[in-house]
Write a structure and sequence with these properties.
By secondary structure, this protein is mainly beta. The chain folds into 4 domains: about 10-275, no CATH class; about 285-485, Immunoglobulin-like (Sandwich), CATH 2.60.40.740; about 500-700, Immunoglobulin-like (Sandwich); about 700-890, Immunoglobulin-like. The chain is about 5% helix and about 40% strand. A hairpin with a 7-residue loop joins strand 14 and strand 15. About 45% of the residues are buried.
Length: about 900
């Protein structure tokens, strides 16, 4: 530029044309060598506001004076030299004391650089003045401060101011302290070393366009020679530039920090007190919230759109609206977290989001993003675009979110808490100590679709979201209720679950894994429990499987040797429920355990509730294994299934059980059509009886040729009472017995006078049969159990003429084998076992008492050549095959040839 003086030689330095006189001044500004750089620092600092009314618009003044060397050489104005050349100067403002750079014009960098040749910044971009005292300059300078466009290459500068120190450009970059309280920090970086700063009194105007500042509007070129100008109007309508905090409390402070070129690592600090802000009760705060689900279908997954409006008073004479401090939003009861959202979800840690790291942009994984956010802040040139991320869960605090934005020099990192009610699942979101920044509108969108983060209430109705917003002004919170309507897909609440099950290798008599699938349609009542009854003959080989001890069963920490299968559960609303277990999470397991709630055995079903970044603990469900004592059919009765975990409802869609232990589950040897039956209970008390067809094949290939050995002990004479022992043996791999008819030889009659006591059905059912009703003992060996079953043989009351013969076997399980006693065509005793369970029995031994307690009486001398001593046996297999034979009854007669 060319000064309006003669004989100027212009050179350009750092984008500014300097005259020879400027170069001379530069040389004069050099600090004398005798100054001690280590003594560089603040001599004094102060700050003031023209008003302390909360939300008012103050003129803001700071005064910075640096230490000078009393032994140094004074300049022509009598100023002692500073101890060093100022390099950086930082001013930290208290939270809530903010400016709005959009309320005035902005000066471009090009305009500012041409201040001494083309007029420089426009007059309506001036926002204040700074009065500088510089060493070697014989007067003070009053320099205009201009509102600049933010630097395009600096992502951390939210606003910029600039002024000249004589002819040297000085920029003030303003950033938001996103690592702490979101207050503003003004920084002068790399102050030109030629500026020998002694003191600076800087005033930023509350309303730059106010006519009271007209006489202080001047150009940078004019500031070299004058400290005032003829009255000049801004040309803009007056708008507030600065606003006081809207929080009242103790005194505020302005913090200062500076260093020198000589010792850049030596930082001098100082603080200036500001009087406390008052009058918060006069500040307005009138927020309103609207909440709308992206889907209006009942029980369906849904996103959510929420808009918070806080009307702002931007008038010159008005008070700024209080900033929002705390927000508590409770969604309607019935709107819950949707478990399907966890599939593939990741968490974003505090380190990844850059919490506490100044000027660091968030680096959250894309898979942790669950929504978007928009912030309309009057102080920013445009809407701030952001995102919502799932925070890395912590024990006891799983559902947390980050509100993040990294634009326009702002790094927003606000943590929110999400608390689902542990009983109802109702969601309350909490944000506390939010930044003291004017927020006109905040828009939040949670993603929808099949993996939406929320689920709608299960019924159509109008629901209300309750909100409570607390201002920084300290005035009472503002509460409200925002309506939302669910009016689609209203036909919910039925209960028609379906079951599918069977063996994967349906070959009669062979081992095969068993699968069971229970499904429920979306929108139906939830499954709360189920009882499953297997087809006759579908049994488990318990032999060799160690049982999970009680203590371990309660926690699901059973040994692997007790595991007999796995389970998988799909839960959640919509077409994409969450499947557990997830591929990279802990596996599920089904263990075999001992007695439980009256059942001889039980299942321990362990399901780690892990998905995405969440671990809701290990769910352990016990189920008793009951064995029907008459049919040997197995019924598994589950405990009540958990309906909610850590506040997240478990909407069961599929329950899959796979009993896959090798050589554990054995198919029936009957190929008759059968069914797997289940009684399914809902969380509302509904009961549904469902079944699935079951049938195996290959029965014809099974052989069937058991043997029976019968022997009488004791006297062989007519009228005596022998003891009877019968041993039935079956071959492995053959069909099991389904019906047995055994007729003793004509030589044996029933001694009715020895029928002393008969157990009634009521007594038998209560396991209270008199001891006198016992007439024998039996023992059965099966490859399915580690130990034989054995027990007494009773005479039990019957609907027939004679009592029934009941074998009450017990051991690892209990089973009753019922035989009907009557007379055969030849008058002998016949016992018919109409229903023998489809279970492999390798050996069955029956011992009936003799003598005075014997039920048999010899009708002839057994040793007579004419005695008939062969039984008539007719066995029918489960596969329909018949085996008739007439084995000889062994007795105590001498070995000799006898007639048959």
């Amino acid at each position: 530029m060319r000064f309006p003086r003669r004989n100027r030689i212009a050179i350009k330095l750092s984008g500014v044309l300097l005259s020879a006189e400027a170069l001379l001044c530069w040389a004069l500004f050099a600090v004398p060598a005798e100054a001690a750089p280590s003594d560089y620092g603040f001599a004094s600092v102060s700050a003031s506001l023209s008003t302390t009314q909360a939300g008012a618009h103050p003129n803001f003044t700071t005064v910075v004076t640096l230490k000078t060397d009393p032994n140094g050489e004074p300049d022509l104005a009598g100023n002692q030299p500073p101890h060093g050349k100022t390099k950086d100067l930082k001013v930290t403002l208290p939270p809530g004391l903010i400016g709005n750079p959009n309320s005035v014009a902005q000066c471009t960098t090009l305009q500012f650089e041409t201040a001494f040749e083309k007029g420089g910044c426009p007059q309506d971009s001036q926002v204040g003045v700074t009065v500088l005292r510089l060493y070697s300059l014989n007067r003070t300078l009053t320099e205009p401060i201009f509102n600049m466009e933010p630097p395009s290459g600096d992502p951390n500068t939210v606003a910029r101011l600039a002024f000249y120190g004589y002819v040297y450009p000085i920029f003030i970059n303003v950033r938001v302290r996103s690592e702490s309280d979101y207050g503003l920090t003004a920084e002068l970086k790399a102050v030109p070393s030629a500026v020998g700063l002694i003191s600076a009194t800087t005033t930023l105007w509350a309303v730059p366009a106010d006519p009271s500042h007209d006489t202080q509007r001047l150009t940078s070129a004019e500031a070299v020679n004058v400290s005032a100008s003829p009255p000049r109007a801004s040309g803009l309508a007056p708008k507030p530039f600065l606003s006081d905090p809207t929080s009242c409390g103790g005194p505020l402070s302005i913090d200062f920090a500076t260093n020198s070129y000589a010792l850049p690592d030596q930082v001098s600090t100082a603080s200036a007190a500001l009087p406390a802000i008052t009058g918060c009760g006069l500040v307005n705060f009138d927020p309103s919230l609207s909440v709308t689900p992206t889907s209006r279908e009942a029980a369906a997954p849904t996103g959510l759109d929420a808009t918070l409006n806080i009307p702002q008073d931007e008038t010159v004479k008005g008070l700024a609206t209080s900033q929002l401090r705390n927000a508590v939003v409770t969604l309607p009861e019935g709107m819950t977290i949707a478990s399907g959202a966890a599939d593939g979800l990741q968490g974003c840690s505090a380190e990844q989001v850059g919490l506490g790291a100044p000027d660091k942009a968030a680096e959250c994984p894309d898979a942790s993003k669950i929504g978007t956010a928009e912030f309309d802040v009057p102080a920013l040139s445009q809407t701030l675009q952001g995102a919502v991320y799932q925070r890395t869960p912590e024990p006891g605090n799983l559902f947390r979110i980050w509100l993040v934005a990294d634009e326009l020099g702002v790094h927003v990192k606000i943590g929110g808490e999400v608390h689902p009610d542990p009983v109802t699942g109702q969601i309350t979101s909490i944000f506390t100590e939010t930044p003291q920044v004017p927020l006109e509108e905040f828009r939040l969108h949670f993603k929808g679709g099949s993996r939406a983060v929320l689920a709608n209430p299960p019924h159509c109705a109008t629901y209300f979201t309750h909100s409570e917003f607390t201002p920084w002004s300290g005035t009472p919170p503002v509460s409200g209720d925002s309506p939302m309507t669910i009016d689609q897909g209203c036909d919910t609440g039925g209960f028609s679950p379906k079951i599918f099950g069977g063996t994967t290798n349906p070959v009669a008599g062979s081992f095969s894994p068993v699968v069971l699938n229970l499904t429920r349609e979306d929108g139906e009542q939830n499954v709360s429990g189920l009882d499953v009854t297997t087809p006759p003959g579908l049994l488990g080989k318990l032999a060799g499987v160690p049982l999970c001890p009680v203590a371990q069963a309660e926690t699901g920490t059973c040994d692997a040797a007790s595991q007999i299968g796995v389970t998988a559960v799909a839960a959640g609303p919509g077409p994409s429920p969450l499947w557990i277990p997830q591929p990279d999470k802990d596996p599920t397991a089904v263990y075999l355990s001992g007695p439980y709630k009256g059942a001889p055995y039980s299942l321990v079903v362990k399901t780690p509730a892990q998905a995405g970044p969440f671990d809701l603990g290990t769910v352990v469900v016990r189920a008793g294994i009951f064995v029907d004592p008459n049919t040997a059919q197995i019924t598994v009765k589950s405990d009540t299934l958990p309906q909610i975990l850590e506040g997240v409802p478990v909407f069961y869609r599929t329950i899959h059980v796979d009993i896959d232990k090798a050589n554990f589950t054995l198919n029936p040897t009957s190929c008759d059509p059968m069914s797997i039956d289940s009684v399914v209970r809902s969380d509302k008390g509904a009961v549904s009886n469902v079944s699935d067809r079951f049938q195996v094949g290959g029965c014809a290939s099974l052989g069937f040729k058991p043997s029976l050995e019968t022997r009488l002990f004791g006297s062989t004479h007519r009228g005596t009472h022998p003891r009877l022992r019968a041993i039935l043996k079956a071959h492995p791999g053959e069909a099991n017995i389904g019906r047995a008819v055994v007729s003793l030889p004509h030589s044996e009659f029933l001694e009715q006078s020895h029928i002393r006591t008969v157990c009634t059905r009521v007594q038998f059912a209560a396991d209270e049969c008199p001891e006198a009703s016992i007439y024998g003992h039996a023992r059965a060996i099966t490859p399915l159990l580690d130990q034989p079953l054995e027990g007494p043989v009773y005479l039990r009351s019957s609907s027939h003429k004679l009592p029934d013969l009941v074998v009450a076997l017990s051991g690892q399980v209990k089973f009753n084998l019922v035989g009907r006693i009557d007379s055969a065509h030849d008058g002998g005793i016949r016992t018919t076992f109409e229903s023998v369970p489809d279970a492999p029995v390798s050996k069955f031994v029956l011992n009936m008492q003799g003598g005075k307690k014997g039920l048999l009486v010899n009708s002839e001398n057994l040793c007579s050549p004419k005695a008939k001593t062969r039984t008539i046996v007719r066995l029918t297999a489960q596969n329909g095959k018949i085996h008739d034979f007439n084995p000889l009854v062994r007795d105590s007669c001498p070995k000799k040839s006898k007639g048959e």
